[in-house]
């Protein structure tokens, strides 16, 4: 056990009440004597492993996912190390509770299940004093802020200040999956009002009781907030999360060259999807530049993925125009084509010269793509005819049903395998159980953003990157794909098991940091053993000794 020293004054009950240091019943006999804990704890000293068993026993007894979420947040508030150890050791079971899908429910009920404050609420009313407000945060070594304005929480729309569950959950994943020390993480909810009438009428709603500000007033709030983050925590990485389309793209464009920032909904999703595509190509033996990808959906995920595929294809020799020509989008109006007017800016680069096609199945037949990627949040849209067409055009059709939650998935894993005679290379946004088809067992895995963003953050922080670039996301996608074993591929898994995520994050962290050094964007001194250096910075949730 490595050693740590609590601040001099932290002894006795104060130590037990500090979640960053508390070990509860795991304080040893010597620690109980040295730290004034004798008598304040039950007699038996319990190991962290036994505590984990107790947590699991209690969690598994909870009747529904929201109760599990509340119980886990309770643990987060009491004993951080144990909380992060439980998530790191049981990611398949815990990530769906602290993040999607359960976190969505938790946000909807935020004011009703509230226990105690976590993170910071900065509001439109704080204009002129945001830096001063940020200085109230108790830790000075913050290296990542996740910020949301609550306008587009998952697929649930405007949840205003109740969206705070998202930055909290995301930063828990940074710590659990990539070992970013908890004190270096700061969740922020930028409260600019809400247009959600149910929340405005709810006496337990905790945000500003006003409609959203917009236009120049909104931009001024964001600008002051960003400036304040850099003043109070110089160089801090600011990750935008769950902003509405109309703000997400332009805020990313506005700030990505100014500070260290990225948008996981756009760029993290892109890297995880590209990694899945690279894994699929290891199976088909095809080249990336020969793929034709058709998206159902044309929002943050679809255009983010397309943009990164274009970057990857350009790195392999295609021109930008040639690469764009290989990505096609279908939105709620049909195929995105040049003749359509009034297209949002992020769709325009993919508006190709082609006759209008109103329906997705017809677009599949017209374009004969090698891959279809569903990110429209409309369930059941990869129908039997669509999948049979894909299986007719391709020996190994690539089918990613990425929409969440499960009810919005474009098809189930079973449908994907059955309707392509077991030939689909399938990945999903929501988890699916293994599928037995014609004597073969397929183990589909989730294209979970948790494989990517924690490692990207880790690499950016370790290298003190001034910006987060497309090249870093490309490197992250390649590093993730490289962790997929032949055995994974043989059973249809395009991603590694989630239990491997800490090692995956270390690999991605090193790859991202390497790009930061190569691109001249690193503020940290060069390291001989980058992977070892990145690993050495990772927070370990196993208990340390105090004596
Ligand atoms: P978004 O709101 O930015 O985009 C949704 C897009 O779908 C919009 O372009 C909209 O026009 C289009 N759309 C809506 N109805 C449609 C219809 N009937 N037919 C065709 N298109 C339609 O949302 P987003 O951030 O892009 O996320 C979309 C989905 O992808 C969500 O379900 C989200 O959970 C999922 N997602 C999954 C992952 C992952 O698996 N790693 C990551 C990010 C997002």
Polypeptide structure, described:
This protein is an alpha/beta fold. It has four domains: 12-94, Hemocyanin, N-terminal domain, CATH 1.20.1370.30; 102-259, Rossmann fold (3-Layer(aba) Sandwich), CATH 3.40.50.10380; 267-447, 3-Layer(aba) Sandwich (Rossmann fold), CATH 3.40.50; 451-533, Malic enzyme, N-terminal domain (Rossmann fold). The chain has 24 helices and 14 strands. The protein has helices at 12-16, 29-34, 48-61, 65-78, 80-89, 91-98, 102-108, 110-113, 130-134, 165-178, 197-201, 215-232, 245-255, 264-284, 300-315, 320-324, 360-367, 384-393, 413-418, 453-462, 470-482, 486-490, 501-518, 530-536, and strands at residues 120-123, 144-148, 185-191, 237-240, 261-263, 293-296, 327-331, 334-335, 371-374, 398-401, 425-428, 435-437, 440-442, 445-446. The strands form three sheets. The protein has a seven-stranded mixed sheet, sandwiched between helices. Strands 1-3-2-4-5 form a five-stranded parallel sheet, sandwiched between helices. Strands 12-13 form a two-stranded antiparallel ribbon. Helix 4 (65-78) crosses helix 5. The longest helix is centred in the middle third of the chain and has 21 residues, at 264-284. It starts with 11 loop residues before the first helix and ends in an 11-residue tail after the last helix. The model has no long low-confidence stretch (mean pLDDT 96). Bound molecules: nicotinamide-adenine-dinucleotide. Nicotinamide-adenine-dinucleotide (NAD) is lined by residues 155, 245, 265, 269, 272, 296-302, 330-332, 375-378, 402-404, 408, 429, 447-449.
